[in-house]
Protein backbone atom coordinates (compact mmCIF):
# COMPACT_ATOMS: atom_id res chain seq x y z
CA UNK A 1 0.00 0.00 0.00
CA UNK A 2 1.29 3.47 -0.90
CA UNK A 3 1.82 6.15 1.75
CA UNK A 4 -0.62 8.40 -0.09
CA UNK A 5 -3.47 5.91 0.47
CA UNK A 6 -2.76 5.91 4.21
CA UNK A 7 -3.92 9.50 4.41
CA UNK A 8 -0.52 11.20 4.53
CA UNK A 9 -0.05 14.63 2.95
CA UNK A 10 2.22 15.16 -0.12
CA UNK A 11 5.01 16.81 1.97
CA UNK A 12 5.43 13.51 3.80
CA UNK A 13 5.02 11.00 1.02
CA UNK A 14 7.46 12.86 -1.19
CA UNK A 15 9.98 12.90 1.70
CA UNK A 16 9.73 9.12 2.19
CA UNK A 17 9.74 8.56 -1.56
CA UNK A 18 13.13 10.30 -1.69
CA UNK A 19 14.34 7.85 0.95
CA UNK A 20 13.34 5.00 -1.34
CA UNK A 21 10.29 3.86 0.61
CA UNK A 22 7.90 2.77 -2.12
CA UNK A 23 5.42 0.75 -0.04
CA UNK A 24 4.33 1.04 3.58
CA UNK A 25 5.48 -1.83 5.83
CA UNK A 26 2.83 -3.83 7.78
CA UNK A 27 3.32 -1.84 10.99
CA UNK A 28 3.05 1.43 9.05
CA UNK A 29 -0.16 0.25 7.31
CA UNK A 30 -1.79 -0.55 10.63
CA UNK A 31 -0.48 2.25 12.84
CA UNK A 32 -0.44 5.37 10.63
CA UNK A 33 -4.26 5.61 10.13
CA UNK A 34 -4.88 5.00 13.86
CA UNK A 35 -2.48 7.76 14.93
CA UNK A 36 -3.98 10.16 12.39
CA UNK A 37 -7.40 9.46 13.95
CA UNK A 38 -6.01 10.45 17.35
CA UNK A 39 -6.20 6.93 18.85
CA UNK A 40 -3.98 5.52 21.60
CA UNK A 41 -2.02 2.59 20.19
CA UNK A 42 -0.03 -0.25 21.68
CA UNK A 43 2.03 -1.95 18.98
CA UNK A 44 4.39 -4.89 19.14
CA UNK A 45 6.97 -4.65 16.39
CA UNK A 46 10.64 -5.50 16.14
CA UNK A 47 13.29 -2.91 15.33
CA UNK A 48 13.78 -3.04 11.58
CA UNK A 49 10.08 -3.27 10.71
CA UNK A 50 9.73 0.47 10.02
CA UNK A 51 8.13 1.35 13.35
CA UNK A 52 9.82 4.78 13.58
CA UNK A 53 8.06 6.03 10.46
CA UNK A 54 4.85 4.36 11.69
CA UNK A 55 4.61 6.88 14.51
CA UNK A 56 6.80 9.75 13.27
CA UNK A 57 4.98 10.38 9.98
CA UNK A 58 1.45 10.82 11.44
CA UNK A 59 2.84 12.82 14.39
CA UNK A 60 4.51 15.24 11.98
CA UNK A 61 1.23 15.57 10.07
CA UNK A 62 -0.86 16.16 13.21
CA UNK A 63 1.52 18.76 14.63
CA UNK A 64 1.88 20.52 11.30
CA UNK A 65 -1.90 20.91 11.05
CA UNK A 66 -1.81 23.03 14.17
CA UNK A 67 1.28 24.98 13.17
CA UNK A 68 1.88 27.75 15.71
CA UNK A 69 2.35 31.41 14.82
CA UNK A 70 5.87 32.32 13.73
CA UNK A 71 6.58 34.66 16.65
CA UNK A 72 5.46 32.50 19.57
CA UNK A 73 8.18 30.32 21.06
CA UNK A 74 7.87 26.65 20.20
CA UNK A 75 7.09 24.24 23.03
CA UNK A 76 7.44 20.48 23.10
CA UNK A 77 4.19 19.06 21.70
CA UNK A 78 5.40 15.54 20.96
CA UNK A 79 7.75 13.58 23.20
CA UNK A 80 9.41 10.33 22.11
CA UNK A 81 11.03 8.34 24.92
CA UNK A 82 13.58 5.68 23.96
CA UNK A 83 15.85 3.36 26.00
CA UNK A 84 19.30 4.04 24.52
CA UNK A 85 21.48 6.83 23.22
CA UNK A 86 21.92 5.07 19.89
CA UNK A 87 18.19 4.73 19.35
CA UNK A 88 17.66 8.38 20.38
CA UNK A 89 20.19 9.58 17.82
CA UNK A 90 18.74 7.32 15.13
CA UNK A 91 15.10 8.29 15.75
CA UNK A 92 16.10 11.98 15.90
CA UNK A 93 17.73 11.71 12.47
CA UNK A 94 14.76 9.84 10.97
CA UNK A 95 12.32 12.50 12.19
CA UNK A 96 14.45 15.23 10.64
CA UNK A 97 14.44 13.41 7.30
CA UNK A 98 10.72 12.64 7.34
CA UNK A 99 9.79 16.21 8.32
CA UNK A 100 12.15 18.03 5.97
CA UNK A 101 9.27 19.64 4.03
CA UNK A 102 7.69 21.05 7.21
CA UNK A 103 8.85 23.96 9.39
CA UNK A 104 8.60 21.86 12.57
CA UNK A 105 11.68 21.66 14.81
CA UNK A 106 12.93 18.48 16.42
CA UNK A 107 15.94 17.38 18.42
CA UNK A 108 17.28 14.40 20.36
CA UNK A 109 18.72 14.58 23.88
CA UNK A 110 20.61 11.70 25.46
CA UNK A 111 23.47 11.07 27.86
CA UNK A 112 27.15 10.53 27.12
CA UNK A 113 27.48 13.79 25.17
CA UNK A 114 27.84 17.45 26.23
CA UNK A 115 24.89 19.09 27.95
CA UNK A 116 25.26 22.69 26.70
CA UNK A 117 24.65 22.19 22.95
CA UNK A 118 21.44 20.34 23.85
CA UNK A 119 20.40 23.17 26.22
CA UNK A 120 20.93 25.75 23.46
CA UNK A 121 18.75 23.78 21.04
CA UNK A 122 16.01 23.43 23.65
CA UNK A 123 16.15 27.16 24.39
CA UNK A 124 15.52 27.98 20.73
CA UNK A 125 12.25 26.00 20.92
CA UNK A 126 11.38 22.47 19.84
CA UNK A 127 8.15 20.83 18.61
CA UNK A 128 9.24 17.20 18.77
CA UNK A 129 11.68 15.97 21.38
CA UNK A 130 13.33 12.54 21.34
CA UNK A 131 14.95 11.64 24.66
CA UNK A 132 16.34 8.96 26.91
CA UNK A 133 14.62 9.15 30.33
CA UNK A 134 17.71 10.02 32.41
CA UNK A 135 18.93 12.94 30.29
CA UNK A 136 15.38 14.26 29.89
CA UNK A 137 14.98 14.52 33.68
CA UNK A 138 18.35 16.28 33.97
CA UNK A 139 17.15 18.93 31.51
CA UNK A 140 13.89 19.31 33.39
CA UNK A 141 15.79 19.78 36.68
CA UNK A 142 17.90 22.49 35.02
CA UNK A 143 14.67 24.18 33.94
CA UNK A 144 15.57 23.79 30.28
CA UNK A 145 12.12 22.60 29.28
CA UNK A 146 8.67 21.79 30.53
CA UNK A 147 6.31 19.10 29.35
CA UNK A 148 3.00 20.78 30.16
CA UNK A 149 2.06 21.27 26.50
CA UNK A 150 2.80 17.73 25.32
CA UNK A 151 -0.06 16.44 23.13
CA UNK A 152 1.43 13.15 21.98
CA UNK A 153 3.83 10.86 23.84
CA UNK A 154 5.59 7.83 22.37
CA UNK A 155 7.28 5.15 24.46
CA UNK A 156 9.49 3.42 21.91
CA UNK A 157 10.86 -0.05 22.80
CA UNK A 158 8.98 0.33 26.08
CA UNK A 159 9.93 -3.19 27.21
CA UNK A 160 13.60 -2.24 26.92
CA UNK A 161 12.98 1.00 28.81
CA UNK A 162 11.74 -1.10 31.73
CA UNK A 163 14.48 -3.75 31.31
CA UNK A 164 17.03 -1.00 31.69
CA UNK A 165 15.58 0.05 35.03
CA UNK A 166 13.90 3.32 34.02
CA UNK A 167 10.57 2.59 35.74
CA UNK A 168 10.93 5.37 38.32
CA UNK A 169 11.93 7.91 35.69
CA UNK A 170 8.93 6.93 33.54
CA UNK A 171 6.54 7.38 36.47
CA UNK A 172 8.02 10.84 37.18
CA UNK A 173 7.92 11.91 33.53
CA UNK A 174 4.38 10.58 33.00
CA UNK A 175 3.16 12.80 35.86
CA UNK A 176 4.61 15.87 34.14
CA UNK A 177 2.70 15.30 30.90
CA UNK A 178 -0.95 16.42 30.62
CA UNK A 179 -3.40 13.59 31.28
CA UNK A 180 -5.33 14.51 28.15
CA UNK A 181 -2.93 13.38 25.46
CA UNK A 182 -2.43 10.74 22.81
CA UNK A 183 -0.20 7.84 23.89
CA UNK A 184 1.65 5.46 21.59
CA UNK A 185 3.32 2.48 23.16
CA UNK A 186 5.76 0.39 21.11
CA UNK A 187 7.45 -2.76 22.30
CA UNK A 188 9.70 -5.38 20.83
CA UNK A 189 7.88 -8.28 22.48
CA UNK A 190 4.52 -8.81 24.09
CA UNK A 191 5.28 -9.26 27.73
CA UNK A 192 3.86 -8.68 31.19
CA UNK A 193 6.18 -5.69 31.48
CA UNK A 194 4.47 -4.00 28.54
CA UNK A 195 1.02 -4.63 30.02
CA UNK A 196 2.26 -3.04 33.22
CA UNK A 197 3.54 -0.10 31.21
CA UNK A 198 0.16 0.49 29.63
CA UNK A 199 -1.47 0.41 33.09
CA UNK A 200 1.17 2.80 34.35
CA UNK A 201 0.55 5.26 31.57
CA UNK A 202 -3.22 5.02 32.11
CA UNK A 203 -4.29 4.24 28.60
CA UNK A 204 -6.70 1.82 26.96
CA UNK A 205 -4.99 1.48 23.63
CA UNK A 206 -5.86 -0.24 20.37
CA UNK A 207 -3.53 -3.22 20.09
CA UNK A 208 -1.49 -3.95 17.00
CA UNK A 209 0.75 -7.02 16.81
CA UNK A 210 3.14 -7.35 13.92
CA UNK A 211 5.42 -10.32 13.26
CA UNK A 212 5.31 -12.75 16.10
CA UNK A 213 8.74 -13.75 17.31
CA UNK A 214 8.72 -17.16 15.66
CA UNK A 215 7.88 -15.70 12.25
CA UNK A 216 10.71 -13.23 12.43
CA UNK A 217 13.20 -15.85 13.48
CA UNK A 218 12.08 -18.17 10.66
CA UNK A 219 13.34 -15.69 8.05
CA UNK A 220 16.87 -16.12 9.36
CA UNK A 221 18.97 -19.23 8.67
CA UNK A 222 19.97 -20.39 12.14
CA UNK A 223 22.75 -22.85 12.96
CA UNK A 224 24.08 -24.01 16.29
CA UNK A 225 27.67 -25.25 16.52
CA UNK A 226 28.30 -27.28 19.64
CA UNK A 227 31.89 -26.71 20.78
CA UNK A 228 34.04 -26.28 23.87
CA UNK A 229 34.07 -22.87 25.56
CA UNK A 230 37.86 -22.62 25.37
CA UNK A 231 37.86 -23.14 21.57
CA UNK A 232 35.18 -20.58 20.77
CA UNK A 233 37.55 -17.69 19.95
CA UNK A 234 39.62 -19.87 17.62
CA UNK A 235 36.49 -21.20 15.90
CA UNK A 236 35.07 -17.69 15.55
CA UNK A 237 38.17 -16.27 13.92
CA UNK A 238 38.57 -19.36 11.68
CA UNK A 239 34.94 -19.19 10.57
CA UNK A 240 35.07 -15.48 9.67
CA UNK A 241 38.43 -15.84 7.93
CA UNK A 242 37.82 -19.08 6.04
CA UNK A 243 34.36 -18.08 4.85
CA UNK A 244 35.66 -14.67 3.89
CA UNK A 245 32.93 -12.76 5.72
CA UNK A 246 33.25 -8.99 5.77
CA UNK A 247 30.47 -7.60 7.95
CA UNK A 248 29.94 -9.69 11.02
CA UNK A 249 28.21 -8.70 14.24
CA UNK A 250 29.36 -10.82 17.18
CA UNK A 251 27.40 -10.89 20.44
CA UNK A 252 28.90 -11.63 23.84
CA UNK A 253 27.15 -11.90 27.17
CA UNK A 254 29.44 -9.60 29.14
CA UNK A 255 31.61 -6.54 28.58
CA UNK A 256 34.64 -8.54 29.73
CA UNK A 257 34.19 -11.23 27.12
CA UNK A 258 33.48 -8.55 24.46
CA UNK A 259 36.90 -7.07 25.26
CA UNK A 260 38.61 -10.48 25.23
CA UNK A 261 37.00 -11.69 22.01
CA UNK A 262 37.64 -8.32 20.32
CA UNK A 263 41.32 -8.46 21.27
CA UNK A 264 41.64 -12.07 20.03
CA UNK A 265 40.09 -11.28 16.64
CA UNK A 266 42.22 -8.16 16.23
CA UNK A 267 45.34 -10.23 17.00
CA UNK A 268 44.24 -12.78 14.42
CA UNK A 269 44.33 -10.03 11.82
CA UNK A 270 40.59 -9.31 11.55
CA UNK A 271 39.80 -5.60 11.81
CA UNK A 272 37.52 -5.47 14.84
CA UNK A 273 35.80 -2.88 17.03
CA UNK A 274 34.08 -3.34 20.35
CA UNK A 275 30.78 -1.74 21.33
CA UNK A 276 29.65 -1.79 24.94
CA UNK A 277 28.29 0.48 27.64
CA UNK A 278 31.71 1.30 29.12
CA UNK A 279 32.79 2.97 25.91
CA UNK A 280 32.32 6.73 25.52
CA UNK A 281 29.42 7.74 23.30
CA UNK A 282 31.77 9.21 20.67
CA UNK A 283 33.63 5.88 20.46
CA UNK A 284 30.39 3.94 20.14
CA UNK A 285 29.18 6.25 17.37
CA UNK A 286 32.49 5.92 15.54
CA UNK A 287 32.46 2.12 15.88
CA UNK A 288 29.00 2.00 14.37
CA UNK A 289 29.87 4.39 11.55
CA UNK A 290 32.99 2.43 10.58
CA UNK A 291 31.12 -0.85 10.72
CA UNK A 292 28.30 0.46 8.52
CA UNK A 293 30.84 1.87 6.05
CA UNK A 294 32.55 -1.51 5.87
CA UNK A 295 35.97 -0.24 7.02
CA UNK A 296 35.94 -2.71 9.90
CA UNK A 297 35.09 -6.35 9.46
CA UNK A 298 33.80 -7.39 12.86
CA UNK A 299 31.82 -5.54 15.50
CA UNK A 300 31.75 -7.23 18.91
CA UNK A 301 28.83 -6.02 21.02
CA UNK A 302 26.92 -6.73 24.22
CA UNK A 303 23.10 -6.86 24.23
CA UNK A 304 22.56 -3.43 25.76
CA UNK A 305 24.94 -1.75 23.34
CA UNK A 306 23.25 -3.35 20.35
CA UNK A 307 19.73 -2.16 21.07
CA UNK A 308 18.30 0.02 18.39
CA UNK A 309 21.23 -0.54 16.04
CA UNK A 310 20.06 0.10 12.53
CA UNK A 311 22.37 -1.78 10.24
CA UNK A 312 20.50 -2.78 7.14
CA UNK A 313 20.84 -6.15 5.49
CA UNK A 314 23.51 -7.36 7.83
CA UNK A 315 24.55 -10.75 6.43
CA UNK A 316 25.99 -12.46 9.53
CA UNK A 317 25.26 -12.45 13.23
CA UNK A 318 27.26 -14.75 15.50
CA UNK A 319 26.36 -15.45 19.09
CA UNK A 320 29.72 -16.07 20.73
CA UNK A 321 27.72 -16.82 23.87
CA UNK A 322 23.98 -17.33 24.13
CA UNK A 323 22.22 -14.51 25.99
CA UNK A 324 21.07 -15.07 29.58
CA UNK A 325 17.51 -14.23 28.54
CA UNK A 326 15.99 -16.31 25.71
CA UNK A 327 14.06 -13.28 24.38
CA UNK A 328 17.36 -11.50 23.70
CA UNK A 329 18.21 -14.26 21.22
CA UNK A 330 15.32 -13.12 19.01
CA UNK A 331 16.39 -9.54 19.42
CA UNK A 332 19.97 -10.40 18.43
CA UNK A 333 19.14 -12.39 15.34
CA UNK A 334 16.71 -9.63 14.30
CA UNK A 335 19.84 -7.68 13.30
CA UNK A 336 20.17 -9.93 10.26
CA UNK A 337 17.71 -10.80 7.50
CA UNK A 338 16.15 -7.36 7.67
CA UNK A 339 14.02 -5.66 5.04
CA UNK A 340 13.26 -8.98 3.36
CA UNK A 341 16.90 -9.95 2.75
CA UNK A 342 18.12 -13.36 3.86
CA UNK A 343 20.39 -13.48 6.86
CA UNK A 344 22.41 -16.02 8.77
CA UNK A 345 22.65 -16.39 12.53
CA UNK A 346 25.22 -18.75 14.04
CA UNK A 347 25.50 -19.62 17.70
CA UNK A 348 28.52 -21.20 19.36
CA UNK A 349 27.12 -23.27 22.19
CA UNK A 350 29.09 -25.09 24.88
CA UNK A 351 27.87 -27.84 27.21
CA UNK A 352 26.96 -25.39 29.98
CA UNK A 353 24.68 -23.41 27.65
CA UNK A 354 22.44 -26.30 26.56
CA UNK A 355 19.67 -25.39 29.00
CA UNK A 356 19.50 -21.83 27.58
CA UNK A 357 19.28 -23.39 24.13
CA UNK A 358 16.25 -25.38 25.29
CA UNK A 359 14.61 -22.17 26.58
CA UNK A 360 15.21 -20.50 23.21
CA UNK A 361 13.68 -23.43 21.32
CA UNK A 362 10.67 -23.32 23.65
CA UNK A 363 10.22 -19.62 22.85
CA UNK A 364 10.63 -20.19 19.11
CA UNK A 365 8.34 -23.24 19.26
CA UNK A 366 10.69 -25.31 17.08
CA UNK A 367 14.02 -27.12 17.38
CA UNK A 368 17.18 -25.53 15.99
CA UNK A 369 19.65 -27.25 13.67
CA UNK A 370 22.59 -28.48 15.77
CA UNK A 371 25.95 -29.33 14.16
CA UNK A 372 29.68 -29.71 14.81
CA UNK A 373 32.18 -27.53 12.97
CA UNK A 374 34.85 -29.78 11.47
CA UNK A 375 38.08 -29.49 13.45
CA UNK A 376 36.31 -27.85 16.42
CA UNK A 377 34.23 -30.77 17.69
CA UNK A 378 33.95 -30.89 21.52
CA UNK A 379 36.67 -32.93 23.28
CA UNK A 380 34.12 -35.19 24.96
CA UNK A 381 32.61 -36.17 21.63
CA UNK A 382 36.05 -36.75 20.04
CA UNK A 383 36.93 -39.06 22.94
CA UNK A 384 33.73 -41.05 22.49
CA UNK A 385 34.31 -41.36 18.76
CA UNK A 386 37.95 -42.42 19.25
CA UNK A 387 36.89 -45.03 21.80
CA UNK A 388 34.65 -46.63 19.21
CA UNK A 389 37.75 -47.59 17.18
CA UNK A 390 40.19 -48.92 19.82
CA UNK A 391 40.90 -52.70 20.04
CA UNK A 392 39.60 -52.68 23.61
CA UNK A 393 36.34 -51.17 22.45
CA UNK A 394 36.08 -53.72 19.62
CA UNK A 395 36.60 -56.63 22.11
CA UNK A 396 34.06 -55.09 24.47
CA UNK A 397 31.55 -54.71 21.65
CA UNK A 398 31.98 -58.35 20.48
CA UNK A 399 31.72 -59.57 24.10
CA UNK A 400 28.56 -57.57 24.49
CA UNK A 401 27.18 -59.09 21.27
CA UNK A 402 28.06 -62.61 22.42
CA UNK A 403 26.52 -62.21 25.83
CA UNK A 404 23.38 -60.78 24.16
CA UNK A 405 23.19 -63.90 21.92
CA UNK A 406 23.80 -66.15 24.92
CA UNK A 407 21.11 -64.37 26.86
CA UNK A 408 18.77 -64.81 23.94
CA UNK A 409 19.47 -68.59 23.78
CA UNK A 410 18.94 -68.97 27.55
CA UNK A 411 15.80 -66.91 27.27
CA UNK A 412 14.43 -69.04 24.45
CA UNK A 413 15.16 -72.29 26.36
CA UNK A 414 13.43 -70.92 29.42
CA UNK A 415 10.42 -69.96 27.35
CA UNK A 416 10.16 -73.43 25.80
CA UNK A 417 10.39 -75.10 29.26
CA UNK A 418 7.70 -72.75 30.60
CA UNK A 419 5.44 -73.56 27.64
CA UNK A 420 5.96 -77.31 28.18
CA UNK A 421 5.09 -76.99 31.91
CA UNK A 422 1.98 -75.01 31.11
CA UNK A 423 0.88 -77.67 28.60
CA UNK A 424 1.46 -80.49 31.16
CA UNK A 425 -0.57 -78.64 33.82
CA UNK A 426 -3.42 -78.11 31.37
CA UNK A 427 -3.52 -81.85 30.43
CA UNK A 428 -3.55 -82.90 34.15
CA UNK A 429 -6.42 -80.48 34.81
CA UNK A 430 -8.39 -81.92 31.88
CA UNK A 431 -7.88 -85.53 33.08
CA UNK A 432 -9.02 -84.71 36.64
CA UNK A 433 -12.28 -83.34 35.18
P1 LIG B 1 12.90 1.08 12.02
O1 LIG B 1 12.15 -0.19 12.30
O2 LIG B 1 12.07 2.27 12.17
O3 LIG B 1 14.20 1.11 12.78
O4 LIG B 1 13.31 1.03 10.45
C1 LIG B 1 14.22 0.10 9.92
C2 LIG B 1 14.77 0.49 8.58
O5 LIG B 1 13.76 0.39 7.57
C3 LIG B 1 15.27 1.94 8.51
O6 LIG B 1 16.50 1.94 7.85
C4 LIG B 1 14.25 2.67 7.69
O7 LIG B 1 14.85 3.72 6.96
C5 LIG B 1 13.70 1.59 6.77
N1 LIG B 1 12.29 1.77 6.38
C6 LIG B 1 11.27 2.19 7.16
N2 LIG B 1 10.11 2.18 6.46
C7 LIG B 1 10.39 1.71 5.24
C8 LIG B 1 9.61 1.46 4.04
N3 LIG B 1 8.31 1.68 4.01
N4 LIG B 1 10.25 1.00 2.96
C9 LIG B 1 11.59 0.76 2.98
N5 LIG B 1 12.39 0.97 4.07
C10 LIG B 1 11.80 1.44 5.17
Briefly, what CATH class of the largest domain?
Answer: Alpha Beta
CATH fold-type name of the largest domain: Rossmann fold
Low-confidence stretches: none
Proportion of strand residues: 5-15%
Oligomer: single chain
Structure ligands: adenosine monophosphate
Mean pLDDT: 86
Based on the coordinates given, report the CATH architecture of the largest domain.
3-Layer(aba) Sandwich
CATH superfamily of the largest domain: P-loop containing nucleotide triphosphate hydrolases
The count of strands amounts to: 14
Shape: elongated
Major sheet: 7 strands, parallel
| Global Rg | 30 Å
Number of helices: 18
Helix content: 40-55%
The class by helix and strand makeup works out as alpha/beta
Termini separation comes to 91 Å
Strand order of the largest sheet: 3-4-2-5-6-1-7
Q: What number of structural domains do the residues give?
A: 2
SSE topology sketch:
Blueprint: H1 10-18, H2 26-36, E1 41-44, H3 51-65, E2 78-81, H4 85-98, E3 106-109, H5 116-124, E4 128-131, H6 133-141, E5 152-155, H7 158-163, H8 167-176, E6 182-187, H9 192-200, E7 206-209, H10 213-218, E8 220-226, H11 232-242, E9 248-251, H12 255-267, E10 272-275, H13 281-293, E11 298-301, H14 303-306, E12 316-319, H15 326-333, E13 343-349, H16 354-364, E14 369-371, H17 379-388, H18 391-432
Parallel strand pairs: 1-6, 1-7, 2-4, 2-5, 3-4, 5-6, 8-13, 8-14, 9-11, 9-12, 10-11, 12-13
Helix pairs in contact: 2-3, 3-4, 15-16
The structure holds adenosine monophosphate.
Amino acid sequence: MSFEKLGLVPELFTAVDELGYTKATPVQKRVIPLVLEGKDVMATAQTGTGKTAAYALPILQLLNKKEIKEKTKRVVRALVLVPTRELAAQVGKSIEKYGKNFALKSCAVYGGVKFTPQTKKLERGIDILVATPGRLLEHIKQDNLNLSKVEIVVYDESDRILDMGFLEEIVTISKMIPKKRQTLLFSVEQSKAVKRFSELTLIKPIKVVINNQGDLAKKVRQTIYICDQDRKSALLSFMIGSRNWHQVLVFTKTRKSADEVGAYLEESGLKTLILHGDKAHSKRTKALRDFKAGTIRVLVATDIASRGLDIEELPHVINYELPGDAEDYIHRIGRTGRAGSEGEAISLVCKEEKSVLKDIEKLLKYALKVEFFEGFEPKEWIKKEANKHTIKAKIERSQEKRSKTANNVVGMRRKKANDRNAQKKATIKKRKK
